[in-house]
């Protein structure tokens, strides 16, 4: 099964996923082992999480909207079952590692176990606490609960498409308002823990991905027209991302503008890269980087496993007087982080993905019905996105 999935993956999206996890690996190396070994790339590596947010917004948005756009009924039961089998086994195993090795991996403080189990530990989270990198998983899991429910509610209105765009716009505005008020009232700024880890301050980064899914499923002609400029999207995405990142420099990051608009602008910039990855004409989609597909496939497992492995392996190297900031030490720790993710993927994620495919196949998420209005249903429009759709349902 998994060989077939790998063969039909979208190479541009795999390149972005691989890039995102590599950026995170470099960033967390500096966080865990206290160095600047990767220079500027290590310093900005946190944007890998922003890229994961946009990718998740698109992929989950597309899975949710695809059936509805074709006049289908979306099954919440199958969707949640598939998501839980995809995310929980890896996560709970790594959580167990943190519990068992609390003396080694524990931070300045640890949230109650029930909050980790319910994906709410990002609320009130501070830097240096236990299992802090799970904050992004909290936001994504919360998003996975809310998005399909909202989509089903909106689908019952005759003007559901216009209403959907309105909800996206108002939600982004709400997140910007939340950050702006936090700056105005409490002096917070983007990298303040109160904003950086907050669901209310960061959820809007998933919405540009949902907007792409909206375009793909409800405005197919416009979507196809935009994708024709794949290389222009790529250049614009890279340029705008670089420009926005300048705003996160120490000179500007404390400003009202960056606090209010910074994360939103960055997500929009990264969404242009996602659009480029979906365009068959883009270099991002056409060039296959060796190893990118594998890193993308293992990325969730690597993300969960790498940080505790960094800590354990790094401490062991230091105790044996091996320099973790020398090329050999860096390579050893990084490869250990990737290898741990691969093992987690093979031994835990893969078996559960087999069970997911057997118990809750993707085609059970949608059943024929007539709910959504104002949806292009002609055969030509349906055929345009079929090729992309087949390759995305495995996510």
Question: Could you characterize the architecture of this molecule?
Answer:
The protein is mainly α. It has one domain (2-392). Helices cover 72% and strands 2% of the residues. The protein has helices spanning 2-7, 11-33, 39-43, 47-69, 76-100, 102-105, 113-117, 135-154, 160-186, 193-196, 199-202, 207-218, 220-227, 230-247, 256-278, 283-286, 292-319, 327-359, 379-384, 386-392; strands at residues 72-74, 366-368. It has a two-stranded antiparallel ribbon with strand order 1-2. Helix 2 runs antiparallel to helix 15 and helix 17 packs across helix 18. It is globular.
- Please report which band the strand proportion falls in: under 5%, 5-15%, 15-25%, 25-35%, 35-45% or over 45%: under 5%
Give the low-confidence spans. 1-7, 368-394
Written as H for each helix and E for each strand, in order along the chain, the element string is: HHHHEHHHHHHHHHHHHHHEHH
Number of domains: 1
Amino- and carboxy-terminal Cα gap? 13 Å
Main sheet characteristics: 2 strands, antiparallel
Strand order of the largest sheet: 1-2
């Amino acid at each position: 099964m998994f060989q077939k999935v790998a063969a039909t993956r979208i190479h541009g999206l795999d390149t972005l996923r691989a890039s995102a996890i590599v950026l995170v690996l470099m960033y967390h190396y500096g966080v865990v082992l206290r160095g600047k070994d990767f220079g500027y790339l290590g310093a900005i590596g946190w944007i890998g999480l922003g890229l994961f947010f946009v990718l998740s917004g698109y992929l989950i948005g597309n899975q949710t909207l695809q059936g509805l756009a074709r006049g289908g009924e979306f099954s919440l039961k199958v969707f949640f079952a598939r998501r839980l089998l995809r995310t929980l086994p890896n996560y709970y195993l790594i959580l167990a590692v943190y519990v068992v090795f609390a003396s080694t991996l524990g931070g300045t403080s640890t949230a109650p176990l029930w909050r980790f189990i319910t994906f709410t530990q990002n609320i009130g989270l501070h830097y240096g606490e236990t299992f802090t990198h799970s904050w992004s998983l909290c936001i994504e899991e919360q998003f996975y609960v809310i998005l399909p429910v909202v989509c089903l509610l909106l689908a019952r209105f005759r003007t559901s498409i216009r209403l959907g765009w309105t909800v996206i716009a108002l939600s982004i505005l709400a997140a910007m308002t939340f950050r702006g008020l936090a700056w105005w009232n409490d002096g917070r700024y983007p990298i303040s823990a109160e904003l950086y880890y907050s669901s209310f301050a960061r959820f809007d980064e998933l919405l540009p991905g949902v907007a792409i899914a909206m375009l793909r499923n409800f405005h197919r002609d416009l979507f196809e027209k935009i994708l024709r400029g794949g290389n222009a999207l790529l250049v614009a995405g890279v340029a705008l991302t670089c420009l926005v990142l300048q705003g996160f420099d120490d000179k500007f990051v404390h400003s009202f503008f960056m606090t209010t608009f910074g994360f939103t602008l960055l997500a929009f910039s990264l969404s242009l890269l996602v659009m480029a990855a979906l365009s068959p004409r883009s270099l991002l989609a056409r060039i296959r980087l060796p190893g990118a597909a594998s890193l993308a496939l293992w990325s969730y497992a690597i993300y969960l496993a790498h940080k505790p492995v960094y800590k354990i392996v790094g401490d062991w190297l230091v105790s044996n007087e091996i320099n973790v900031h020398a090329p050999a030490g860096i390579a050893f720790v990084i490869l250990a982080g990737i290898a741990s993710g691969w093992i987690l993927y093979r031994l835990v994620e893969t078996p559960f993905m087999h069970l997911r495919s057997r118990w809750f196949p993707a085609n059970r998420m949608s059943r024929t019905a007539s709910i959504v209005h104002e949806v292009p249903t002609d055969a030509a429009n349906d055929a345009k996105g079929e090729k992309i759709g087949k390759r995305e349902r495995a996510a």
